[in-house]
Design goal:
Radius of gyration: 14 Å
Number of helices: 4
Distance between the termini: 37 Å
Structural class: alpha+beta
Strand order of the largest sheet: 1-2-4-3
Largest sheet: 4 strands, mixed
Strand content: 15-25%
Amino acid sequence: MRKRGLAVPALTRLAKNSYYGSLVPMVRDAFLTNELVRIDCQGLERGDYKKIGCKLRDLVPCTLVTFDKEQIVVWRGPGYMPPEYGQYPADWESGDDGLKVNINAEEN
């Protein structure tokens, strides 16, 4: 599964110090057609893209496959059903599916 995931075309490339608000809806939409989704995190710190992967696991929901080669690979899991609006807590609170992760460019 890891090798197949790394061979899938990247859904998007994450930049340092960016807002990843559209990432959750992008992954949910990609799961409608693909079983595996790869997100390119080249240039980010390993801890930063692991935080992003953990948030995706909670918000999409999905299964994390690997973080190899500065990539996040997620699997939609068996019996995936497309979500309906209002099904997730992120939809209830603000109506925004945005991913909010605090990533510091410099650690003291």
